[in-house]
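We append the chain.
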Amino acid sequence: MTKPNIPARAEAIRERLARRYPVPRTELHWSSPWELLAATVLSAQCTDARVNQVTPHLFATWPDVEQMANAEVGEIEVVIRSTGFFRNKAKNLRAAAARIVETYGGQVPRTMEDMLTLPGVARKTANVVLSNAFGVQAGIAVDTHVRRISFRLGLTRETVPDRIERDLMKLFPQDDWGAVNHYLVLFGREVCTARKPACPVCELEDLCPKAGLDTKTATKRKPK
């Protein structure tokens, strides 16, 4: 049996998704690196739509990182409660803000090494902030959509986010790492959904080995 040319498949996938999403960007609303960091922390186990409903009040109450660093955790909890896991998120937001003020002069750090010292920040959040706020391509953020789509497309056999990220980083040009994250996230929301992937109308159908996918779950529903 001929071994699949995974790099060629990855490039074809990137080209097609680039045409589908010519201006890829996060759906979180933000106007500063700190706002993006806070919104990304809140987005864990929560939809971007819900986060976007919460952050206007959050940022109006504590407009910058210095004020967040001095906020009462209990008051933050009240504002972000609907995002889920609000106690840990509130604690991490305040602690991250305090570290940014005390260690980085009030500026969100611009390196992966420094980002990972912030409470509540792992590689996924760091990658989102570095790429979108600073144009720094340090890796590829792996969320539930990226994990699912990259496995189905046969781009990785790994299940651990850090290992999936390493596989994807080998397949795509570094300048495109941030865009690749957006491509896979958006595609996972609109077409290759978890329960009912729209295989019959998918522009990647001929490239997809459908790894781990029960094709009986595919639907003829058109993408949104």
